[in-house]
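QA checklist item 7 of 12: single-chain prediction sanity check.
[x] sequence parsed
[x] length recorded as 124
[x] structure emitted
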Amino acid sequence: QGQLVESGGGSVQAGGSLTLSCAASRYARTSYCMAWFRQTPGKERERVAIIFTRDGSKNVFDSEKGRFTLSRDNTNDILYLQMNSLKAEDTAMYYCAAKTTFGNCRLPADFDTWGQGTQVTVSS
């Protein structure tokens, strides 16, 4: 781990916003897909958003749809997760992940490269 570097986490009040960054270097261009996951203690990592790096197609999942936006800086190889209208239940460690080979991009086990994570804490 350590080849993806997340930043931008912090503490914010409910209703606030944060933008997470993932310095992805070559993974932003050569991976099959990249994703943001989040995890709270005692729970499995949950996929939040995904991008297929070659055609740029992307998706945000579940209750985060409409509040979170995934984007990519192609010049600097950075993946962003813009998070608005944050809720207490968004509190988690957020991870950036890359899958370097063709295949499913759904479960944590599908991804072969991970960052160290960045903590997001939302107080109500």
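[x] summary fact logged: The chain has one helix and eleven strands.
[ ] second reviewer sign-off
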